[in-house]
Amino acid sequence: MSDIFAITAADVEEAARVIAPAAVRTPLLENALLNERCGQRVLVKFEGAQHGGSFKFRGAYNRLARLNADERKAGVVAWSSGNHAQGVAFAARLLGIAATIVMPADAPAIKTANTRALGADVVAYDRFTENREEIATRLATARGAVLVPSFDDPFIMAGQGTIGLEILQQADELGARVGQILVNCGGGGMASGIATAVKARRPDMAIYAVEPEGFDDTARSLASGVRESVSPDARSICDALLSPSPGVLTFPVNRALLAGGLVVSDVSVREAMRFAFSALKLVVEPGGAAALAAMLAGLAPGAEGASVVVISGSNVDPDAYARIIAGGA
Amino acid sequence: MSDIFAITAADVEEAARVIAPAAVRTPLLENALLNERCGQRVLVKFEGAQHGGSFKFRGAYNRLARLNADERKAGVVAWSSGNHAQGVAFAARLLGIAATIVMPADAPAIKTANTRALGADVVAYDRFTENREEIATRLATARGAVLVPSFDDPFIMAGQGTIGLEILQQADELGARVGQILVNCGGGGMASGIATAVKARRPDMAIYAVEPEGFDDTARSLASGVRESVSPDARSICDALLSPSPGVLTFPVNRALLAGGLVVSDVSVREAMRFAFSALKLVVEPGGAAALAAMLAGLAPGAEGASVVVISGSNVDPDAYARIIAGGA
């Protein structure tokens, strides 16, 4: 049965060894106000503390570290709304590899600026009229460069899965037994990696993908059993979670291993960002706050033991953040 | 010689045992952009993750946990610009003790609101015309309540010192040897506690008190050898660090153990808050960012090994924070 999956738990464990010298072991935090608000023990895995300000460094480094000398010389090409861009750029810089990133013209300015500051070439495209995959593939072919997908790749999935291994280790250190994990979900790379790692050790764990309204393709796909797509008219402030459909490689894993999908509104995402500001004292970007929003709204069915919320990224423009924490849209 | 000091390293170790069941072991974080910017390894002790959003819970809990049954029934009174207020209120709530807090009328609204939300009575006073110590002493006497000073108390000093023990333990876990520690300084309670704990184990450690311009009473006192005072006209955005002079109990410890005092401008404090937002992804209040500002400005002389910066608190009004991260005053 496992041969139909792109990755195994052993791949995630290997990824953990590969990224260990380079990645940040991000903290698993507990907050009394969050516990009180949720009426249960909640642990927060804070991937904003990862290189590049989101979990994406894990997968990117795991992918780039496997390139051979010729591939490294030719460089890499990726497309990304911004967090994968920074993850790839950061990993590429550490490994001395040239990186070109195709990014939406309307990506948060901080994401584009940080990607450039990390030494990558940024190529802009229109998210509503152009196909980023085609642009990136064309660039990669022209340069003989390796394409680094943002989620539909076994090394990327396994790299993101290292979050799951750390959650289990750190919960042990805190004396907590985890019953459920809430994971923000765009293409499903992080969810599939975490689920692969965690369910191998804890088959009873309930893992939920959390998506913004209008981009609930994984939730609907989990319900229907086939890969569903979002409407081209859908909009959300969660710029990191706007992928149009579950991945070809990630979805079979998520279909087999996830407990279900949860859906949150932009309003509740903003509320979660404000809670993170006022109670957790953590900066969280909209797409990074979806799982926290689901937890605060009581959407997760609950489980024996502690709940873990993955805060997956913290790259948000100062002006947008200032508006949101001051109570605006 | 040690008999002239209000606390010993053993008092801090005892405090660590007392607060262990209740306090958060806050994370010691490392960030590649911070290391790069400073040209050395820097570790950040993030006390914003402590109960009440600042380090103050440690000392407050260590003090309140020592009260006998009669004292607990009579309740406690404290004065505070806001962080000690929340620390005392949080500890009092955990221990089932009534708390009354005398706070400046111009304290950040979030600090007053959070203190009330934790169940404490808040009594407002005018910071420029009234004496908070007199008001609090009068209230405590009238009620037979115990006065809980914000820094000049052996249990408070020892409680804050537990930060130093954690820094040494967590740096060991990270494989780092620490050469210098930068600590924000108001009345000097945290600096004296950390110095007492750390210098007993690492006599070679350089520990610096960091203060805002105009409130450099500890820096000037360390230089002159006697307790100096600030000008009544002094103003700073660092509301947590505005005490008028070093403590009677804290100063002898700091004079004996600190390497010196560093002074930062409000401009550099805002810059540090923006760096914490954009690179560390941590919410930091002005007074919590002074040591980080000193580190970013290169004010610390440098030492063999890693530098530790204590981010001591994160209680800042959303509107004020929004203005600052958007680049304003």
In words, what does this structure look like?
The structure is a homodimer of 329-residue chains. Chain A has 329 residues and is an alpha/beta fold. Chain A has two domains: 9-55 and 154-325, Rossmann fold, CATH 3.40.50; 57-148, Rossmann fold, CATH 3.40.50.1100. Helices cover 44% and strands 15% of the residues of chain A. The first copy, chain A, is built from 14 helices and ten strands. Chain A has helices spanning 9-19, 32-38, 56-64, 69-74, 83-95, 109-117, 132-143, 154-173, 189-201, 217-224, 250-257, 266-280, 290-296, 318-325, and strands spanning 28-30, 42-46, 76-79, 99-104, 121-125, 146-147, 178-184, 206-212, 260-264, 306-311. In chain A, the strands form two sheets. The first copy, chain A, has a six-stranded mixed sheet with strand order 1-2-10-7-8-9, with helices on both faces. In chain A, strands 5-4-3-6 form a four-stranded parallel sheet, with helices on both faces. In chain A, strand 4 (99-104), helix 6 and strand 5 form a beta-alpha-beta unit. In chain A, helix 1 (9-19) crosses helix 3 and helix 3 (56-64) packs across helix 8 (154-173). Chain A is globular and about 55 Å long. The termini of chain A are far apart. Chain A binds chain B through residues 24, 27, 29-32, 46, 48-49, 51, 53, 90, 110, 274, 277-278, 280-284, 314, 318-319, 321-323, 325-327, and chain B through 24, 27, 29-32, 46, 48-49, 51, 53, 90, 110, 274, 277-278, 280-284, 314, 318-319, 321-323, 325-327.
